[in-house]
Amino acid sequence: MTQVHANKSIKSIFCVTLMAAALGITACSSPTHPDVKARQDIMKNYGDSMKVMGGMVKEPDTFDAEVFQEQAAFLAEESKTPWNHFVDAEAVGNAKEEVWSNNDDFIARSEDFQQASAELNMAASTATSASDIEDAFGAVGKSCKSCHDDYQVETDN
Fold it and tell me: How far from 21 is each of 9, 31, 134, CA to CA, in Å?
C-alpha cells in the first residue's frame, strides 16, 4: 500500500509542477504591450456602452432617456482617449499595419468617430424617445465599423 501512495504522490507532484510550468510559459510568452492593453480596455468600454444604447434602439419601448444620456456622454468623452495608444508601431495587438502606414486616414477616421460621438451626445441631451437618437446612433455604429473594417485584424471571436 505504501508503494501505491508513493506513486500517487509523485504523480500529483509531477502534475502540479507541469501545470505551474505551463501557466508560467503562457504568462511569459505573450506579454501584452501597455498601449495594446489600454486601447483594448477602452474599446471594450465603448462596446459595453454601445450595447446598452443599442438595446434601447432595438427595443424602443425600453428607452430610458437618463441612461441613454449617461452612456452617450461617456462615449463622447471616451472617444478622445485611445488614439495616443496607437503611436508605437511595435504595439500591434489586433491593429493592421495600415494604422501606421496610412496614418492620416486612420487619424481622420478617429476624428470622424469623435464627431459622431459628440453628435450622438448632443442628440441624447434632448431625446425623449429612441427615434430621437436613432440616426445619430447609427452614425456612430457606421464610424466604428468603417475603422474596424480597414484597420483591425479579423478575429474568430
Answer: 18, 16, 52
